[in-house]
# Entry
Amino acid sequence: MLKRLLVLDGVVAVCRVQDDGAIIDSAGLISDEMMTQMAHFALWYRRIISGNSDVFSLFSQMNGWTPVRGWIVKGAAM
# Structure
């Protein structure tokens, strides 16, 4: 399923990670070392986003914001 995302314009790599940052599945045009770094980044980014979503849900009283199921990161340097 991840490989289907690679056909989208600008997508160079995709990965699926466990809650501890371990890679479950990955595909793309980057090295294994960079894929591991991306998984580590994903772990910490998910923690930040989850915390923000929890606080937003608490104060807004709007349901459906948690748990965070996925996100996209875009960078100009890639």
